[in-house]
């Protein structure tokens, strides 16, 4: 069986490629970095190291790569693949839509009616559905009708912390031991080759919301508060007891919403939070604050890890003082190397805070969360480090 994976980055090599290869898929990465592409072509394997005491290392094999710009080759790979996965970043899904559409066209022209599954492994709710919406405009009506029958886009949740890498071997990747990959089972077509270690579920929403609004909400809170307090790594943030407590408080606020909405067991959810705090504090993993804080416009958008749980909690009447503070801290993220941070600061300067909260975060002026975020922003701005560390 053949899998084509878009994005040979941290999660692509450190999680998806590994899981697929371990399930006997031949994996072809579609990538951008010429050096990594040529190394993958030559070696057809790479090492993956667990961030545990022993630094256990295994070899991922049966892999190769091609350049995303080689349009004909990419289309040919897709035409004969059984599975397509992506980990390019949700904002880049639009960039890979046309190459995937060209492959689908070629596949249907060649009358290949074997089932094809396309799974976006991004941090987003409904990532595969979003990708489908981007691909379909590139298909003619006939190909689209065939795609509806033979191609499916199961949504998924992926969880494994894979920081930016700094090895002598550019292909090596260090990952945390924990992992979870959940796939929406009803979207699977007959003939799908199961991926070992994936959890298939009938309803994805509780899983993706639990993951994004606990792991990713907590993670970005650690990053945004840590950034304001001058920390460089998530581990450093977590070893500060005041900041660690603030991260926990936010996760408890989103937790109250998740328990209410999805009926999770309170004690089990508390344990889930505890495990995540431990994962963030992993002494064997160095994860930069700026990686976790990256792309604040995306993270502050209406359906992402901050605004969506805040609005849902507010609907349930759950107080969210820590979450609104975290949103304000995100709005103060001004790392010059982060394009979105620079754009966000420009928008706030040009249009003002209130219009940013309304237009970009989708929170109407009359909504109580709007005023809470404004107030917390002003407090934080007045006394950045003091307000964060007390
Ligand atoms: N790293 C993690 O801990 C983690 C965990 C779960 C989910 N995710 C999600 O996985 C996705 C990737 O994250 P990452 O941390 O691996 O980032 P990354 O930057 O390490 O990897 C992204 C890769 O995609 C490639 N890419 C971008 N546009 C492309 C295109 N048009 N064609 C081919 N390749 C392209 C980049 O060159 C890069 O190698 C994101 O959506 C992220 O939210 C990351
Ligand atoms: O990838 P992002 O930018 O959406 O979020 C940064 C981190 O929180 C994220 O990559 C986590 O490490 C990952 O989602 C853990 O499963």
TrEMBL record:
Its keywords, alphabetically, are: NAD, Oxidoreductase
**Species of provenance:** Paenibacillus silvae
Name assigned to this protein:
Mannitol-1-phosphate 5-dehydrogenase
Family annotation (InterPro entries): 6-PGluconate_DH-like_C_sf (IPR008927), 6PGD_dom2 (IPR013328), Mannitol_1_phos_5_DH (IPR023028), Mannitol_DH (IPR000669), Mannitol_DH_C (IPR013118), Mannitol_DH_CS (IPR023027), Mannitol_DH_N (IPR013131), NAD(P)-bd_dom_sf (IPR036291)
Which PROSITE patterns does this one have? MANNITOL_DHGENASE (PS00974)
Q: Which PANTHER family match?
A: ALTRONATE OXIDOREDUCTASE-RELATED, MANNITOL-1-PHOSPHATE 5-DEHYDROGENASE
Q: Which HAMAP family match?
A: Mannitol_dehydrog (MF_00196)
Q: Show the catalytic activity.
A: D-mannitol 1-phosphate + NAD(+) = beta-D-fructose 6-phosphate + NADH + H(+)
Gene3D superfamilies (UniProt xref)? N-(1-d-carboxylethyl)-l-norvaline Dehydrogenase, domain 2 (1.10.1040.10), NAD(P)-binding Rossmann-like Domain (3.40.50.720)
* NCBIfam families with a match to the protein in the record: PRK02318.1-2, PRK02318.1-3, PRK02318.2-1, PRK02318.2-5
Q: Does the keyword Oxidoreductase apply?
A: yes
Q: What is its EC number?
A: 1.1.1.17
Task: State the family it belongs to.
Answer: Belongs to the mannitol dehydrogenase family.
Domain Mannitol dehydrogenase C-terminal as annotated: residue spans: 204-380
Q: Which Pfam families match?
A: Mannitol_dh, Mannitol_dh_C
The segment(s) forming the Mannitol dehydrogenase N-terminal domain are 1-191
Which superkingdom, per the lineage?
A: Bacteria
For NAD(+), which residues are the binding ones?
3-14
């Amino acid at each position: 069986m053949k899998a084509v994976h878009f994005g040979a980055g941290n999660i692509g090599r450190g999680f998806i490629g590994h899981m697929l290869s371990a399930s006997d898929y031949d994996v072809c990465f579609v990538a951008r970095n010429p050096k990594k592409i040529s190394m993958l072509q030559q070696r057809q394997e790479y090492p993956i190291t667990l961030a545990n005491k022993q630094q256990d290392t295994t070899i991922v094999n049966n892999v190769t790569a091609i350049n995303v710009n080689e349009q004909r080759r990419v289309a040919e790979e897709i035409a004969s693949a059984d599975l397509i996965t992506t980990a390019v970043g949700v904002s880049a899904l639009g960039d890979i839509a046309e190459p995937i559409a060209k492959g689908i066209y070629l596949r249907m022209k060649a009358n290949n009616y074997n089932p094809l599954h396309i799974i976006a492994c991004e941090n987003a709710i409904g990532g595969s559905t979003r990708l489908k919406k981007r691909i379909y405009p590139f298909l003619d009506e006939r190909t689209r009708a065939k795609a509806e029958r033979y191609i499916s886009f199961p949504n998924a949740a992926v969880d494994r912390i894979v920081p930016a890498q700094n090895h002598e071997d550019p292909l090596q990747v260090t990952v945390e031991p924990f992992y979870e990959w959940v796939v929406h089972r009803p979207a699977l077509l007959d003939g799908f080759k199961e991926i070992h270690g994936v959890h298939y579920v009938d309803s994805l929403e509780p899983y993706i919301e639990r993951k994004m609004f606990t792991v990713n909400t907590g993670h970005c809170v650690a990053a945004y508060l840590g950034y304001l307090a001058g920390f460089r790594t998530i581990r450093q943030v977590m070893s500060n007891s005041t900041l660690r407590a603030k991260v926990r408080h936010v996760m408890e606020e989103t937790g109250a919403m998740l328990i209410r909405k999805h009926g999770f067991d309170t004690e089990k959810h508390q344990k889930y939070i505890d495990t995540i705090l431990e994962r963030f504090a992993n002494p064997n993993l160095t994860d930069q604050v700026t990686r976790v804080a990256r792309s604040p416009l995306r993270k502050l958008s209406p359906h992402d890890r901050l605004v969506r749980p805040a609005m849902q909690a507010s609907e349930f009447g759950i107080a969210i003082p820590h979450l609104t503070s975290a949103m304000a801290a995100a709005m103060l993220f001004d790392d010059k190397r982060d394009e979105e941070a620079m754009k966000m600061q420009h928008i706030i300067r040009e249009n003002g805070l209130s219009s940013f909260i309304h237009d970009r975060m989708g929170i109407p002026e009359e909504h109580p969360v709007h005023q809470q975020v404004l107030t917390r922003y002003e407090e934080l701005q007045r006394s950045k480090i003091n307000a964060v560390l007390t």
